[in-house]
Amino acid sequence: MALTTFKFGSPYLLSSAFLVLFLVVIYFSPFNQTHFTLNHHSSSSSSSSSSTTTSTSTTTPSGPVASVKNDTVLDDNPPPVLGDLDDEPMIAPASSAPNHMDTNDQDHVNYKRSSVERIEEDLARAREAIRKAILTKNCTSDTEENYIPRGDIYRNPYAFRQSHIEMVKRFKIWPYREGDIPLFHNGPMTYIYSIEGQFIDEMDTSGKSPFLARHPDEAHAFFVPVSVKRMADFLYERTRSHLFHGRIVRVVTDYINVVAQRYPYWNRSHGADHFMVSCHDWEKKRSLEIQ
């Protein structure tokens, strides 16, 4: 039977991939220092915890970096990064007269939350909701749906269900725009590698995913839209197969250098909140070599 006629399109694998990614972000956020362990017998209540940080500057790669998008060389003065969305200054209490404020009060009024602080506060609310579900054995949802999964496969079904609720409610991903097809923003939609193409299509090409962020400052994670299958299609040579892995590493490394120089998001977390999606067997080797 011809394998090329086989089509794969299960939405459950994509949903599972989103949920696993969301759990990794909320439990192992690079800006949060407080983690917890799911426990059936936990009896002590936990208060909401959030770690607020300010963005730290990290030295970007020195010297010009070749752009993957147009094969030009980036100058040493990249364009300014867009500011935070909908930042609102904190409002002073009505009883505080402006002409009687001391320096600390004035700083308090002019203070603006950074995008990192707002994201961490949002993740803290998600963690607290999951803790509450574990302790009370009851999930909280904005809808009337009250389904709790059952079975030995779940370590804690209430935590699992509440995690899914929080993912649907909060989780946002920003796909980078740099790079051109066929190696970027494109992937197979059929055959055995179709999950890679479906994810790229939903999160990037078609833009139909409900998890798509409107702006990078509101994103919990950043998607690097590189297709390993397309690199295998266009960069692999049977007569020179020993050169293929090096080519993959150079392409992805160059792409990371481009986005690290243009945006602050890779450098502020050392790439901890960035991810790629591929079901190709060359993905693991390439990732380890890039690290």
Describe this structure in words.
- With 291 residues, the protein is mainly alpha-helical.
- Among the domains are: 56 residues, no CATH class; 103 residues, no CATH class.
- The chain has a three-stranded parallel β-sheet, with helices on one face.
- Strand 1, helix 5 and strand 2 form a beta-alpha-beta unit.
- Helix 7 crosses helix 9.
- The two termini are 40 Å apart.
- The N terminus is likely disordered.
What is the element layout, followed by pairings?
Layout: H1 11-27, H2 103-110, H3 115-136, H4 157-170, E1 173-175, H5 194-205, E2 221-223, H6 228-235, H7 244-262, H8 265-269, E3 274-275, H9 283-290
Parallel strand pairs: 1-2, 2-3
Labels describing this entry:
mainly alpha, 291 residues, three-stranded parallel β-sheet, 3% strand, disordered N terminus
* Weakly predicted, low-confidence segments: 1-8, 33-103, 105-110
Shape, principal axes of CA atoms: globular
- What structural class do helix, strand and pairing data support? mainly alpha
Number of strands: 3
Helix content: 25-40%
In a few lines, what is going on in this structure?
With 291 residues, the protein is mostly helical. Helices cover 39% and strands 3% of the residues. It contains nine helices and three strands, in the order ααααβαβαααβα.
